[in-house]
Every structure is written in C-alpha cells, then in structure tokens.
Write a structure and sequence with these properties.
This protein is an alpha+beta fold and 277 residues long. The protein has a single domain (3-276), classed as Sandwich (Jelly Rolls). Helices cover 20% and strands 26% of the residues. The chain is built from 6 helices and 15 strands. The chain has a 9-stranded antiparallel sheet with strand order 1-13-10-15-6-5-4-3-2. It has a 4-stranded antiparallel sheet with strand order 7-14-11-12, with no helix packed on it. A two-stranded antiparallel ribbon has the order 8-9. A hairpin with a 5-residue loop joins strand 2 and strand 3. The longest helix is centred in the first third of the chain and has 20 residues, at 23-42. The two termini are 31 Å apart. Bound molecules: 2-oxoglutaric acid. 2-oxoglutaric acid binds next to strand 10 and strand 14.
C-alpha cells in the first residue's frame, strides 16, 4: 500500500483500485464465473443441503464441494462460496501479489483468507446496507491504527469483472463510517438514499478494498444486465472462516484445491500451516 493509499484507506474506510486485474484476467474470470453460475444452478435441486449456523440454507456441489445459496430469479442473488473449488481459472487469485501488497498495508503479521464468494446480482437486485456503528464495532470487524500502522481484522477485496455503471448495481459506502460513533438514524432509508451514501462506478478489472467496519451495500441493479463480482476476505491468520456457509469453522479447502496450489497459497488458506504444527 502506498502512502497515498494508506491515507485514503484510513480517511474513507475503502480504496478504489483501478485496473488491479488486467483486461485478460478480468475477461477470463468473467468467463469462469459464468461457467460456475451454470454449474451451481444445475445442481441446486439435487446437491446435498447444508444449513448455515447463521440460518440460510445452502446446497453443495457433489464433485467440487463449493456451497451455493440463492437463485437466478428476477431481483435475486446467487452466491457461490469457496468459488476457487471450481477448477481452475480462479487459482491465481489465491495470493495474487498486487492484492497482497494492498492487504499487507491493512493487516499486520500473518495474513489469512477467511472468505471467498462469487456474487451474482440479477436485474432488480440490491444489497442492503450493513456494518458501520454499532454493528461494525464487534471485535471481528475492528479497524485500528497501532504504532502508525493500520491493523484491521476483517477486510475485503471486491474484483469487478466487467464495467458497472451507476444504475447497474454499484457497490456503495458511507465514507468514513468506520470512524463514526452514532448509529444510522434512518434504518428504513432505501440503500441509494441513505444519508451520506456514495456509489462507486467501476471498470472491468477494477477492485475495491475495504474494512468490514465501514458501512456498505449495493445500489439497486436497474439495468437488464446481471452483475458478477468476486469477493475475497483477508484478515489475521487466526481468524476462521467468515463465509456464511461455514461461519467460524476451518476455512473449507478441498484436497483437490490444495493439491493444485503452491505451498504459499496453501498457507493463506491455513490448512498447510495447521498440518505442519
Ligand atoms: O457490491 C455489493 O453488492 C455489496 C458488497 C458487500 O456487501 C460485501 O462485499 O460485503
């Protein structure tokens, strides 16, 4: 993270990173995401069911082992957690060096991946606002600056695989809400009219990095285009899975995935580290 990125991340709670992925990388991830969408929907009725401790029901892909939730109906979201179990176009994102340079500026000591999801937002869909004060003040969501260094628990990188214009379901934030001390006083305000909210239009290959502590959501997708994004959570290596399907369990990494990855990539998913102890 450059000094300017550090300054802006601290000030806003998020960073817009134009071109973090090359056009070829964004294109191949979009193609893989659309293949994964078809793969996940094809076993929605038949895949074994799994109830998250947080409530939502998932199905699991019988061969690849990822968890999926939701549907492709109008206004719906399809969520595929542990998307990198789907071979193998996503593998390079585990330990992607341009990403890690940013993450290391916000998470001190050993970093781990605690969350990975392909989020598919169909026309009419929106993501409700969440986090900020007081929800974001829990220990898992901590944002702090210690000895002149930013030190977060949960952070997230969102990768945008195609352009997303203002009315196409942009990710949004209430800038600086990670520093706020009062609850949002209008909890029924529509996402795009919440006081202080700001949508971030992006180009294919852009990314947004943020502290979970900052209040965020997704504006309504008013277009006829489906929005595809990849979301990866980073934090201290001791933090267990923050995927909703496997909340607070070991990060779910299949043997097939681990066999394809390098040792340093496996370490980020922590199974190799635990086995070595
Ligand atoms: O982009 C969106 O729809 C919302 C993203 C979000 O809420 C998240 O990544 O936690």
């Amino acid at each position: 993270m450059t000094p300017t990125q550090q300054y802006l991340f601290d000030l806003q709670g998020f960073l817009h990173l134009p071109g973090l992925l090359s056009p070829d990388e964004a294109g191949s991830l979009l193609d893989a995401s659309q293949r994964l969408e078809r793969d996940a929907l094809a076993c929605a009725a038949t895949g074994p069911k799994w109830k998250s401790v947080w409530g939502p029901e998932y199905w699991q892909h019988p061969q690849h082992g990822y968890f999926a939730h939701g549907s492709n109906g109008a206004g719906q979201t399809l969520m595929v957690e542990d998307f990198w179990h789907f071979p193998s176009a996503f593998d390079f994102l585990v330990g992607h060096e341009p990403t890690m340079k940013i993450v290391r500026g916000a998470v001190q000591r050993d970093v781990g991946i605690n969350n990975s999801e392909l989020r598919i937002r169909y026309p009419g869909n929106q993501t409700g606002m969440h986090m900020g004060h007081p929800h974001g003040c829990g220990p898992k969501y901590r944002y702090s600056v210690l000895d002149g260094k930013i030190d977060c628990v949960m952070t997230r990188m969102i990768y945008f695989l195609h352009d997303v214009k203002a009315d196409e379901g942009v990710t949004c934030f209430v800038p600086a809400s990670h520093l706020g001390r009062f609850a949002m006083p209008e909890p029924t305000a529509p996402v795009d009219r919440e006081p202080g909210v700001m949508g971030i239009p992006v180009k294919a290959g852009d990314a947004i990095f943020f502290t979970e502590n900052c209040r965020h959501g997704g504006f309504p997708n008013l277009s006829d285009k489906t929005r595809y994004t990849l979301h990866v959570g980073y934090g201290p290596a001791w933090l267990r899975s923050q995927n909703i399907s496997t909340m607070d369990e070991d990060v779910h990494a299949t043997d097939a995935l681990l066999a394809r990855l390098s040792e340093s990539q496996r370490k980020l998913l922590r199974r190799a580290r635990r086995a070595a102890m």
